[in-house]
Amino acid sequence: MNQELENVTEQFRKLPGIGVKSARRLAYFMLERPESEVKAFLDTIKAAREKICYCSVCCNLATSDPCDICGDARRDHSVICVVEQPQDVMAMEQSHEYHGLYHVLHGALSPLDGISPDQLKIKELLNRLESDEVKEVILATDPDAEGEATAFYLSRLIKPAGIKVTRIGRGIPAGGDIGYADGMTLAGAVQNRKEL
């Protein structure tokens, strides 16, 4: 096997969710493209990397500081939705249902993986809560063991400050099939039921 091809493959393997076969397919694809396309691809990534920073308020990826969301006076500044990753902000924004602010932790607590509270943006969140403006914190961490542990940990830190702490609802997705749902999803659906 060509060592240069393997080097490119290894770089693609560093991307989340990309296994050996997918990485090799991407490597072949990029190496077979015209040089102008490859250059445009690399230039786009490099330009984005140079322009993107972290918002000093919410820790989200942004092109300005503060970011457009934190700087928007029309948003509800009394509510902060805490998410694990920057892509979670985009998902929440696409729902068009949430109009408050965000805080990105950049991960979730995972002692087995060596991720402790000091490695997340928890201190930054607590600093934001020192103002009297924040009335509610919505914990929108993933519904897995790490996300649940993170939500529990944060709620124990925040509640003594007298700030309302809520957790996003969980349940079966629209168009989902109860027969294929896992136990944790079904438990969340039952716990978060509402009267009709």
TrEMBL record:
One Pfam family from the record: RecR_ZnF
Q: Where is the Toprim domain?
A: 78-173
Gene encoding it? recR
Q: Lineage of this protein's species?
A: Bacteria, Bacillati, Bacillota, Negativicutes, Veillonellales
Single GO BP term: DNA repair
Entry function = May play a role in DNA repair. It seems to be involved in an RecBC-independent recombinational process of DNA repair. It may act with RecF and RecO.
Is the keyword Zinc-finger assigned to this protein?
yes
Q: Which organism is it from?
A: Dialister hominis
Mind telling me which SUPFAM superfamilies this protein's record contains? Recombination protein RecR (SSF111304)
* Annotated zinc fingers (C4-type), start-end: 55-70
- Which keywords describe this protein according to UniProt? DNA damage, DNA recombination, DNA repair, Metal-binding, Zinc, Zinc-finger
Give the source's domain of life in one word. Answer: Bacteria
Name of the featured protein: Recombination protein RecR
